[in-house]
Amino acid sequence: MLPEDSFIEFGRLMAANRSIRRFDPAVKVTPETLRALVGLTRYCASGRNLQPLRYRMVSTPEECAALFPHLLWAGYYQDWDGPAEGERPAAYLVQCLDTRLAQDCLCDDGLQLEAITLGARTLGLGSCIIKAFNAPEAAKALHLPEYMKPRYILALGAPAEQVEIVGTDGSLEADIRYYRTPDGTHHVPKRPLDELLID
Ligand SMILES: Cc1cc2nc3c(=O)[nH]c(=O)nc-3n(C[C@H](O)[C@H](O)[C@H](O)COP(=O)(O)O)c2cc1C
């Protein structure tokens, strides 16, 4: 028997946890908040229980500015170079693999990113997981030691854009590219549940 209310509540949180790429820079994300978000990852499952991931907190304007040029945003938006000045993330978490502990992390990285982004959402923050970044340049900008290999960068801040989930038509060829409507709303297509289940 499912505890129905908490399941529905959890589903709402999942649905609200959309990628956000434009932020209100007036709302700061403190090191304490970043630290608390990283704290959630301690409860994530970990392959071989190695727990080899580490986080570099980035929250000063100087470090945010040093990191930003090395990030790529919204690959489907060919004519958009990412958030303009005045709508950029207030902070970042740079997820790194400590290669002294392991050379791979199986799916620990994704599990931890989901935990952090969900936690951020409960605090009213938005986030965007970024894989398309220049890892050597990002590492240099943050003076990361050689053995810390950046895997993902998580942008964080107070959301300053509307995001809506839309359904696809359920075909295999369905267009899953997100798009913006003239009012600036970002629409993100999700496949129907029935398409996810193998007969
Ligand atoms: C593994 C992974 C890598 C991603 N890399 C980027 C990226 O480099 N830049 C970006 O703007 N968004 C990136 N995203 C965000 C995806 O574009 C986003 O999750 C997708 O469009 C669905 O939107 P949603 O997160 O709101 O469901 C990434 C997401 C994941 C899970």
Notable characteristics:
199 residues; alpha+beta; NADH Oxidase; putative fmn-dependent nitroreductase like fold; 2 domains; three-stranded mixed beta sheet; 8 strands; 28% helix; globular; binds flavin mononucleotide
Q: What's this entry about, in short?
A:
By secondary structure, the protein is an alpha+beta fold. The protein contains six helices and eight strands. The protein folds into two domains: 17-161, NADH Oxidase, CATH 3.40.109; 162-199, putative fmn-dependent nitroreductase like domains (putative fmn-dependent nitroreductase like fold, Single Sheet), CATH 2.20.180.10.
Notes on the protein architecture:
With 199 residues, the protein is α+β, with helices and mostly antiparallel strands. It folds into two domains: 17-161, 3-Layer(aba) Sandwich (NADH Oxidase); 162-199, putative fmn-dependent nitroreductase like fold (Single Sheet), CATH 2.20.180.10. Helix content is 28%, strand content 23%. It has helices spanning 4-16, 31-40, 61-67, 108-122, 135-141, 193-196, and strands at 23-24, 53-58, 91-98, 126-130, 148-159, 163-167, 179-180, 186-190. The strands form two sheets. Strands 1, 2, 3, 4 and 5 form a five-stranded antiparallel beta sheet that branches. It is globular and about 45 Å long. It starts with a helix and ends with a helix. Flavin mononucleotide binds at residues 18-19, 21, 72-74, 128-132, 178, 188. Residues 18-19, 21, 72-74, 128-132, 178, 188 line the site of flavin mononucleotide.
